Amino acid sequence: MENYLWVIPFAPLAGAVINGLIALLYSHREQGPSEKMVAFIGCLFPLVSVAAALLAFRQLLGMDEAHRLIEQTLFPW
User: Residue 71 — pLDDT band, cuts 50, 70, 90?
Assistant: First the structure.
């Protein structure tokens, strides 16, 4: 169930990268991208991160107090 923990730090980063790519695509055009689209992407990805954090918090609340720990190893050092 902890396979979604990587979403917490990387969702806002993905939103910033997508908005940056959109800015690059529209950089040579006279009119830029839609402000609504950029704002939607800029708000959606942090909200996804918050939702994942709330899911992790909900999972922690369901655990015994002595075992309240969630960790996920993305890769070994």
Answer: confident
Specify whether the CB–CB gap between 36 and 22 falls below 8 A. Answer: no
Residue 63 φ then ψ, to 5°: -95, 160
Residue carrying the six token digits 């991208």: 33
Q: Name the residue type at position 13.
A: L
CB within 8 Å of 51: residues ≥ 6 apart: none
Q: How far apart are CA 61 and CA 42, in angstroms?
A: 30
Provide the whole-model pTM: 0.78
CA-CA distance, 24 to 17, in Å (whole number)?
10
- Outline where DSSP puts E strands in the chain: none
> Residue 63 above 80 pLDDT?
yes
